[in-house]
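As described in the Methods, two query proteins were run sequentially through the folding procedure within a single session, without resetting any intermediate state between them. The first query and its resulting structure tokens are shown here.
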Amino acid sequence: MYRMTARDQQPATLLAMPSTALKAAMTDVCTRIANTTVTKAKVGTLIWVVGDRIPVYGIPQLSMMGVRSSDMARTPDIRTRAIVPNWCLTFVVEFESQQMNPQTLANLAAHAGIKMGIGDGRQEKGALNYGSFLVCDKADQAFQSIVATGGYEAQAAAMANPGFYDDESAELFDWWQASVKQSGRQEQIRKRAA
């Protein structure tokens, strides 16, 4: 999970997304759009997403999923992630205006949101359906609602006392807590976290 850094003066959110993720989505989607003259290499050199980290609004939840590792034995593992079911962000793109126009940029962003996504488990990877986004106006009611309720304070509270994304996550967390208590490793984990 990415966070806003100490360099950010009074950040609007605790959570962040690297600007490179947005640029990658917009450049990589060029290979998936039929009948286009816009190429990945061309877009990659003509656009710049401003900033290092982009504030992400929304309430994080704890997601725990059973997965199989890629080793020969396909060892089972539990992946623990922060997931933000309803999220939004705004980002600024600077571009070479002689070779690209705002409408082309908006189209790239819209296609990137549907076909690529951003973050872990994004649409581009194929297995999961997370990270997809729609391009909207800042006056959009859903956008305004997420910004109003999913800022820094709400995110910090959710990180201190996380809710669960689904029942499986809650069950896995309870199992993990019980196994830590049973093994006597609770104090070791507390020390490591501090």
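Immediately afterward, the second query was submitted; its sequence and tokens are:
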Amino acid sequence: MILVRHAQAERKARWNREESLRPLSRRGELQAAALVRILAKDDVAQAWSSPTVRCRQTLAPLAAERGLEVRDHPLLAKEARPDSVLPWVLCTHGEVFEALLRVGRESGLVVARAMVTEKGAAWRVIGHQDGSMEMEYVPPGLRLR
């Protein structure tokens, strides 16, 4: 399972339409394209997304490269509760990440120092043969300035 925070979107202050329609910025498009390279070694069989344009656009290049369809799921929406997110999560929002990481740290799954999940970054969930799991931070392919 790989958890991806959506790439950089157009600025909220400049967006006067419905929030769920706010698209990626040019930099965000480049971050989304970089996911193809960053996640090249990962076996991704499904692409699930928050039902927002920016999340769908973040996964679009990876999904196209893998011949996958990006599917929306309401459990990945901005208001989603972390205890209801299913194990095939792929792309969601910063607020959901904060809650997931808090739960992960409390359960011992996440042992990395406290950090913010950057836009376009991911967490790789690694399962071990003994049944234990850990999360590895994957920085974005293109960092914001």
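The two ends are 28 Å apart (CA to CA). We note this only descriptively and draw no conclusion about the first query from it.
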